Amino acid sequence: MNNYSKQREAILDVMKENLVHPTAEEIYHFVLEKEPQISKSTVYRNINILVELGEIKKLNMTVGPDRYDYLYKEHSHAICEKCGNIFDFYDDFNKDKISKELLKQIGNNMDINSITIYGICEDCKSNNKK
Amino acid sequence: MNNYSKQREAILDVMKENLVHPTAEEIYHFVLEKEPQISKSTVYRNINILVELGEIKKLNMTVGPDRYDYLYKEHSHAICEKCGNIFDFYDDFNKDKISKELLKQIGNNMDINSITIYGICEDCKSNNKK
DNA sequence: ATCGAAATTAGGAATTATTCCTAATTTTAA
DNA sequence: TTAAAATTAGGAATAATTCCTAATTTCGAT
Protein backbone atom coordinates (compact mmCIF):
# COMPACT_ATOMS: atom_id res chain seq x y z
CA MET A 1 0.00 0.00 0.00
CA ASN A 2 1.23 3.44 -0.90
CA ASN A 3 1.65 3.78 -4.63
CA TYR A 4 0.55 6.98 -6.26
CA SER A 5 -2.84 7.02 -7.95
CA LYS A 6 -4.76 9.97 -9.27
CA GLN A 7 -7.89 8.57 -7.69
CA ARG A 8 -6.40 8.72 -4.21
CA GLU A 9 -5.07 12.20 -4.86
CA ALA A 10 -8.49 13.37 -6.06
CA ILE A 11 -10.07 12.08 -2.85
CA LEU A 12 -7.55 13.91 -0.71
CA ASP A 13 -8.11 17.07 -2.78
CA VAL A 14 -11.83 16.82 -2.17
CA MET A 15 -11.18 16.53 1.55
CA LYS A 16 -8.98 19.61 1.49
CA GLU A 17 -11.54 21.63 -0.43
CA ASN A 18 -14.60 20.54 1.53
CA LEU A 19 -14.24 21.19 5.22
CA VAL A 20 -17.80 20.07 5.81
CA HIS A 21 -17.32 16.61 7.33
CA PRO A 22 -18.74 14.62 4.41
CA THR A 23 -19.90 11.00 4.52
CA ALA A 24 -18.24 8.39 2.28
CA GLU A 25 -21.18 8.67 -0.11
CA GLU A 26 -20.78 12.45 -0.28
CA ILE A 27 -17.05 12.14 -0.87
CA TYR A 28 -17.83 9.74 -3.72
CA HIS A 29 -20.10 12.31 -5.37
CA PHE A 30 -17.61 15.15 -4.95
CA VAL A 31 -14.84 13.00 -6.45
CA LEU A 32 -17.02 11.97 -9.39
CA GLU A 33 -16.68 15.51 -10.75
CA LYS A 34 -12.91 15.15 -10.92
CA GLU A 35 -12.73 11.46 -11.80
CA PRO A 36 -15.98 10.60 -13.57
CA GLN A 37 -15.41 6.85 -13.73
CA ILE A 38 -14.09 6.25 -10.24
CA SER A 39 -15.85 3.41 -8.48
CA LYS A 40 -17.38 3.51 -5.04
CA SER A 41 -15.17 0.69 -3.80
CA THR A 42 -12.10 2.71 -4.74
CA VAL A 43 -13.44 5.61 -2.73
CA TYR A 44 -14.09 3.46 0.33
CA ARG A 45 -10.72 1.73 0.08
CA ASN A 46 -8.81 5.00 -0.21
CA ILE A 47 -10.75 6.68 2.57
CA ASN A 48 -9.64 3.85 4.84
CA ILE A 49 -6.06 4.17 3.67
CA LEU A 50 -6.06 7.93 4.23
CA VAL A 51 -7.44 7.42 7.73
CA GLU A 52 -4.70 4.89 8.42
CA LEU A 53 -2.08 7.30 7.11
CA GLY A 54 -3.47 9.96 9.44
CA GLU A 55 -4.32 12.36 6.59
CA ILE A 56 -8.01 12.45 7.46
CA LYS A 57 -9.99 11.60 10.55
CA LYS A 58 -13.01 9.37 10.90
CA LEU A 59 -15.84 10.79 12.98
CA ASN A 60 -17.98 8.15 14.66
CA MET A 61 -21.56 9.31 14.50
CA THR A 62 -24.54 8.53 16.68
CA VAL A 63 -26.99 9.17 13.86
CA GLY A 64 -26.28 8.32 10.23
CA PRO A 65 -23.16 7.00 8.54
CA ASP A 66 -19.65 7.92 9.64
CA ARG A 67 -18.17 11.23 8.51
CA TYR A 68 -14.65 12.29 7.64
CA ASP A 69 -12.61 15.38 8.33
CA TYR A 70 -9.41 16.70 6.80
CA LEU A 71 -6.99 17.69 9.55
CA TYR A 72 -5.80 21.07 8.33
CA LYS A 73 -5.27 21.91 11.98
CA GLU A 74 -5.53 19.87 15.15
CA HIS A 75 -8.98 20.25 16.69
CA SER A 76 -11.74 18.49 18.57
CA HIS A 77 -15.38 17.85 17.75
CA ALA A 78 -18.69 18.32 19.47
CA ILE A 79 -21.41 16.26 17.80
CA CYS A 80 -25.15 16.63 18.28
CA GLU A 81 -26.65 13.20 18.79
CA LYS A 82 -30.04 14.32 17.53
CA CYS A 83 -29.39 16.26 14.31
CA GLY A 84 -25.85 15.03 13.67
CA ASN A 85 -24.38 18.51 13.39
CA ILE A 86 -20.64 18.66 13.97
CA PHE A 87 -18.98 21.64 15.64
CA ASP A 88 -15.21 22.04 15.38
CA PHE A 89 -13.55 23.54 18.39
CA TYR A 90 -10.10 24.08 19.77
CA ASP A 91 -9.69 22.75 23.25
CA ASP A 92 -7.35 24.00 25.90
CA PHE A 93 -7.71 21.05 28.28
CA ASN A 94 -4.46 19.44 27.23
CA LYS A 95 -3.86 15.89 26.14
CA ASP A 96 -0.99 15.37 28.56
CA LYS A 97 -3.24 15.89 31.53
CA ILE A 98 -5.90 13.51 30.23
CA SER A 99 -3.20 11.08 29.21
CA LYS A 100 -1.80 10.94 32.74
CA GLU A 101 -5.27 10.57 34.19
CA LEU A 102 -5.97 7.63 31.85
CA LEU A 103 -2.71 5.92 32.79
CA LYS A 104 -3.53 6.36 36.47
CA GLN A 105 -7.08 5.07 36.18
CA ILE A 106 -6.92 2.35 33.56
CA GLY A 107 -3.24 1.48 33.75
CA ASN A 108 -2.88 1.80 30.00
CA ASN A 109 -0.70 4.40 28.34
CA MET A 110 -2.92 5.27 25.38
CA ASP A 111 -1.92 7.60 22.58
CA ILE A 112 -4.82 10.03 22.35
CA ASN A 113 -5.95 10.75 18.80
CA SER A 114 -9.00 12.86 19.53
CA ILE A 115 -11.54 13.96 22.05
CA THR A 116 -15.17 14.01 21.03
CA ILE A 117 -18.04 15.57 22.94
CA TYR A 118 -21.47 14.06 22.29
CA GLY A 119 -24.53 16.01 23.28
CA ILE A 120 -27.69 17.81 22.19
CA CYS A 121 -27.31 21.16 20.48
CA GLU A 122 -29.28 24.28 21.29
CA ASP A 123 -31.58 24.04 18.27
CA CYS A 124 -32.53 20.44 19.05
CA LYS A 125 -33.17 21.37 22.66
CA SER A 126 -35.65 24.11 21.69
CA ASN A 127 -37.25 22.13 18.85
CA ASN A 128 -37.91 19.48 21.45
CA LYS A 129 -40.76 17.31 20.21
CA LYS A 130 -40.77 14.89 23.10
CA MET B 1 -43.97 4.13 23.40
CA ASN B 2 -43.53 3.01 26.94
CA ASN B 3 -45.71 0.05 27.74
CA TYR B 4 -44.32 -2.72 29.83
CA SER B 5 -43.05 -5.79 28.00
CA LYS B 6 -41.03 -8.65 29.39
CA GLN B 7 -38.81 -8.50 26.31
CA ARG B 8 -37.75 -4.93 27.05
CA GLU B 9 -37.19 -5.78 30.70
CA ALA B 10 -35.04 -8.78 29.74
CA ILE B 11 -32.87 -6.54 27.54
CA LEU B 12 -32.37 -4.04 30.33
CA ASP B 13 -31.55 -6.91 32.72
CA VAL B 14 -28.91 -8.17 30.30
CA MET B 15 -27.39 -4.72 30.17
CA LYS B 16 -27.26 -4.52 33.96
CA GLU B 17 -25.66 -7.93 34.27
CA ASN B 18 -23.12 -7.54 31.47
CA LEU B 19 -20.97 -4.49 31.92
CA VAL B 20 -18.90 -5.45 28.90
CA HIS B 21 -20.15 -2.98 26.27
CA PRO B 22 -21.90 -5.52 24.03
CA THR B 23 -22.93 -4.99 20.42
CA ALA B 24 -26.60 -5.28 19.44
CA GLU B 25 -25.89 -8.77 18.12
CA GLU B 26 -24.32 -9.79 21.43
CA ILE B 27 -27.23 -8.36 23.39
CA TYR B 28 -29.54 -10.42 21.19
CA HIS B 29 -27.67 -13.61 22.06
CA PHE B 30 -27.58 -12.83 25.78
CA VAL B 31 -31.31 -12.11 25.77
CA LEU B 32 -32.09 -15.32 23.88
CA GLU B 33 -31.25 -17.26 27.03
CA LYS B 34 -33.97 -15.44 28.94
CA GLU B 35 -36.48 -15.06 26.14
CA PRO B 36 -35.81 -17.87 23.67
CA GLN B 37 -38.20 -16.68 20.98
CA ILE B 38 -37.41 -12.97 21.02
CA SER B 39 -36.73 -11.59 17.55
CA LYS B 40 -33.77 -9.53 16.51
CA SER B 41 -35.96 -6.64 15.41
CA THR B 42 -37.44 -6.47 18.91
CA VAL B 43 -33.95 -6.28 20.34
CA TYR B 44 -32.94 -3.47 18.00
CA ARG B 45 -36.15 -1.54 18.58
CA ASN B 46 -35.84 -1.77 22.34
CA ILE B 47 -32.18 -0.88 22.37
CA ASN B 48 -33.07 2.32 20.56
CA ILE B 49 -35.89 3.04 23.00
CA LEU B 50 -33.63 2.44 26.00
CA VAL B 51 -31.04 4.80 24.53
CA GLU B 52 -33.72 7.42 24.02
CA LEU B 53 -34.93 6.96 27.59
CA GLY B 54 -31.35 7.45 28.78
CA GLU B 55 -31.15 4.01 30.42
CA ILE B 56 -28.24 2.89 28.28
CA LYS B 57 -25.65 4.71 26.23
CA LYS B 58 -24.63 4.12 22.64
CA LEU B 59 -20.89 4.04 22.01
CA ASN B 60 -19.90 5.09 18.51
CA MET B 61 -17.08 2.85 17.41
CA THR B 62 -14.31 3.41 14.91
CA VAL B 63 -13.99 -0.32 14.22
CA GLY B 64 -16.93 -2.70 14.17
CA PRO B 65 -20.59 -2.17 15.02
CA ASP B 66 -21.77 0.21 17.71
CA ARG B 67 -21.68 -0.92 21.33
CA TYR B 68 -23.91 -0.19 24.30
CA ASP B 69 -23.27 0.52 27.94
CA TYR B 70 -25.52 0.46 30.97
CA LEU B 71 -25.07 3.64 32.97
CA TYR B 72 -24.79 2.27 36.49
CA LYS B 73 -22.68 5.34 37.23
CA GLU B 74 -21.77 8.39 35.18
CA HIS B 75 -18.46 7.83 33.43
CA SER B 76 -16.49 8.50 30.27
CA HIS B 77 -14.92 6.19 27.71
CA ALA B 78 -11.53 5.81 26.08
CA ILE B 79 -11.77 3.67 22.94
CA CYS B 80 -8.88 2.08 21.07
CA GLU B 81 -9.35 2.74 17.38
CA LYS B 82 -7.32 -0.31 16.41
CA CYS B 83 -8.62 -3.17 18.59
CA GLY B 84 -11.88 -1.59 19.66
CA ASN B 85 -11.23 -2.06 23.37
CA ILE B 86 -13.24 0.25 25.59
CA PHE B 87 -11.88 1.58 28.87
CA ASP B 88 -14.25 3.14 31.39
CA PHE B 89 -12.86 6.02 33.35
CA TYR B 90 -14.04 8.71 35.70
CA ASP B 91 -12.99 12.13 34.55
CA ASP B 92 -12.33 15.12 36.72
CA PHE B 93 -12.26 17.71 33.96
CA ASN B 94 -15.79 18.89 34.59
CA LYS B 95 -18.56 19.32 32.10
CA ASP B 96 -19.28 22.88 33.15
CA LYS B 97 -15.86 24.02 32.07
CA ILE B 98 -16.09 22.32 28.70
CA SER B 99 -19.64 23.55 28.33
CA LYS B 100 -18.58 27.16 28.79
CA GLU B 101 -15.68 26.68 26.39
CA LEU B 102 -18.06 25.29 23.75
CA LEU B 103 -20.47 28.18 24.18
CA LYS B 104 -17.61 30.66 23.83
CA GLN B 105 -16.12 29.01 20.74
CA ILE B 106 -19.09 27.72 18.77
CA GLY B 107 -21.81 29.97 20.17
CA ASN B 108 -24.03 27.01 20.87
CA ASN B 109 -25.11 26.03 24.35
CA MET B 110 -24.96 22.25 24.01
CA ASP B 111 -26.04 19.79 26.68
CA ILE B 112 -23.09 17.46 27.01
CA ASN B 113 -24.03 13.79 27.20
CA SER B 114 -20.59 12.25 27.13
CA ILE B 115 -16.93 12.73 26.42
CA THR B 116 -15.10 10.07 24.46
CA ILE B 117 -11.37 9.76 23.98
CA TYR B 118 -10.28 7.95 20.81
CA GLY B 119 -6.73 6.67 20.57
CA ILE B 120 -4.42 3.68 20.32
CA CYS B 121 -3.96 1.52 23.39
CA GLU B 122 -0.63 0.30 24.74
CA ASP B 123 -1.01 -3.25 23.40
CA CYS B 124 -1.75 -2.06 19.89
CA LYS B 125 1.20 0.32 20.03
CA SER B 126 3.62 -2.49 20.89
CA ASN B 127 2.04 -5.05 18.54
CA ASN B 128 2.60 -2.49 15.83
CA LYS B 129 2.59 -4.31 12.50
CA LYS B 130 3.04 -1.25 10.33
C1' DA C 1 13.26 3.75 -21.85
C1' DT C 2 11.90 -1.37 -20.62
C1' DC C 3 10.25 -5.06 -18.08
C1' DG C 4 8.48 -7.70 -14.34
C1' DA C 5 6.58 -7.38 -9.72
C1' DA C 6 3.57 -5.05 -6.78
C1' DA C 7 -0.15 -2.00 -6.14
C1' DT C 8 -4.34 -0.15 -7.68
C1' DT C 9 -8.43 0.04 -10.30
C1' DA C 10 -13.65 -0.55 -11.92
C1' DG C 11 -17.52 -3.01 -11.43
C1' DG C 12 -20.34 -5.81 -9.28
C1' DA C 13 -21.36 -9.48 -5.87
C1' DA C 14 -21.51 -10.40 -1.12
C1' DT C 15 -21.74 -9.26 3.58
C1' DT C 16 -22.96 -6.76 7.67
C1' DA C 17 -25.79 -3.93 10.38
C1' DT C 18 -30.04 -2.03 10.93
C1' DT C 19 -34.77 -0.63 9.95
C1' DC C 20 -39.27 -1.45 8.15
C1' DC C 21 -43.64 -4.05 7.41
C1' DT C 22 -47.66 -6.80 8.86
C1' DA C 23 -50.74 -9.59 11.18
C1' DA C 24 -51.15 -11.47 15.76
C1' DT C 25 -50.69 -10.78 20.66
C1' DT C 26 -50.22 -8.19 24.92
C1' DT C 27 -50.85 -4.27 27.81
C1' DT C 28 -53.32 -0.39 29.52
C1' DA C 29 -56.79 2.23 31.49
C1' DA C 30 -61.57 3.46 31.56
C1' DT D 1 -64.34 -6.40 30.48
C1' DT D 2 -63.35 -4.36 26.56
C1' DA D 3 -61.55 -1.45 22.99
C1' DA D 4 -57.60 1.33 21.82
C1' DA D 5 -52.78 1.60 21.89
C1' DA D 6 -48.45 -0.54 22.15
C1' DT D 7 -45.61 -4.35 21.32
C1' DT D 8 -44.28 -8.57 19.30
C1' DA D 9 -42.12 -12.30 15.91
C1' DG D 10 -40.60 -13.12 11.65
C1' DG D 11 -39.05 -11.94 7.59
C1' DA D 12 -38.33 -8.59 3.78
C1' DA D 13 -36.05 -4.45 2.62
C1' DT D 14 -32.58 -1.04 2.95
C1' DA D 15 -28.19 1.10 3.97
C1' DA D 16 -23.41 1.01 4.49
C1' DT D 17 -19.34 -1.21 3.63
C1' DT D 18 -16.16 -4.85 2.22
C1' DC D 19 -14.68 -8.40 -0.83
C1' DC D 20 -13.54 -10.53 -5.37
C1' DT D 21 -11.42 -10.63 -9.97
C1' DA D 22 -9.41 -9.55 -14.15
C1' DA D 23 -7.44 -5.51 -16.26
C1' DT D 24 -4.56 -1.48 -15.77
C1' DT D 25 -1.15 1.50 -13.64
C1' DT D 26 2.90 2.48 -10.96
C1' DC D 27 7.46 1.52 -9.29
C1' DG D 28 12.21 0.35 -9.19
C1' DA D 29 15.98 -1.92 -10.98
C1' DT D 30 18.26 -2.30 -14.91
Give the secondary structure arrangement, pairings included.
Two copies of one chain form a homodimer.
Chain A: H1 6-17, H2 24-32, H3 40-53, E1 56-59, E2 67-70, E3 76-80, E4 86-89, H4 95-106, E5 111-120, H5 122-126
Parallel strand pairs in A: 3-5
Antiparallel strand pairs in A: 1-2, 3-4
Chain A binds a DNA duplex (30 and 30 nucleotides) through residues 1-5, 7-8, 23-25, 37-42, 44-46, 48, 65-66.
Keywords:
homodimer, 130 residues, alpha+beta, 3-stranded mixed β-sheet, 21% strand, globular, DNA-binding
Describe the structure.
The structure is a homodimer of 130-residue chains. Chain A has 130 residues and is an alpha+beta fold. In chain A, 40% of the residues lie in helices and 21% in strands. Chain A contains 5 helices and 5 strands, in the order αααββββαβα. Chain A has helices spanning 6-17, 24-32, 40-53, 95-106, 122-126; strands at residues 56-59, 67-70, 76-80, 86-89, 111-120. In chain A, the strands form 2 sheets. Chain A has a 3-stranded mixed beta sheet with strand order 4-3-5. In chain A, a hairpin with a 5-residue loop joins strand 3 (76-80) and strand 4. In chain A, helix 1 crosses helix 2 (24-32) and helix 2 (24-32) crosses helix 3 (40-53). The mean pLDDT of chain A is 91. Strand 5 of chain A pairs antiparallel with strand 5 (111-120) of chain B. Chain A binds a DNA duplex (30 and 30 nucleotides) through helix 3.
